[in-house]
Amino acid sequence: MCPRAAPDDPGDPGALAASAEALLGTADADVTALVLLARRADGPMRVRATVPLGSHRPG
Question: Is residue 19 part of a domain?
Answer without folding.
Answer: yes
